[in-house]
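not sure who needs this but someone in the group chat was asking about DsbA family oxidoreductase from Actinacidiphila acididurans so here u go. i didnt clean anything up, its just raw.
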Amino acid sequence: MKVEIYSDVVCPWCYVGKARFERALSAFPQAEGVEVVYRPFQLDPAAPTAPRPHREVLAAKFGPQAVAMDERIVGLGAAEGLVFDFDAALENNTLLAHRLLRLALDEYGPQTQVRLKGRLMADHFSAGKDVGDPAQLTEAAAAAGLDRDRVTAFLAGDELREEVLAELEDAQRLGITAVPTYVFEGKWAVQGGQETSTFLAVLEQIAKETAAADPAKGAATSAAPDADGCADGACEVH
């Protein structure tokens, strides 16, 4: 089974969803046969390539409700063993990070890409690091097992830029407007950072559907965001 996860490294629900999905996968008897691949998505494609304090960026977009949004995520994250330090978090354009994730996938494989994804999210949400800074991205990549010299040279150029931009366009064509979105076997879509039990049920159902070789049936669920842009399990593109 192949699971393609569309997400952004600065999406809080993507971080929560990652933890929940991985917990579900660990309880899934056929986990060894599941390939997880991360696909790029940008919540704010027009974001400048310079770090900005998270609190300021969110307040400018959502006003007074921004604080409550953050507080909710902090609580949900704690329940999953995740630390969200929004006072220290920095926002930046994530295209460079997505290029690095594509490099990890192409040259090291899905497992290394998943490991790097987790590292970048932890850096952003917990450590106050800049996921748009080449030096800090290089440190994250090296910690995830990528060759430091290769990453340094890669980030200094434009390699894989067009490929990642094409993937971002593909997400638009697929109708993905909020993340995380999980696409199973290219047929079934689940949106939002669902509960672990929901993810496990979806994995089990799709395994049955795949075994039955009946593409007319699928398991799909959705948790669409409200107007505040980042609620009920998903974050919308700005």
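also Confidence is low (pLDDT under 50) at residues 215-229. if thats useful
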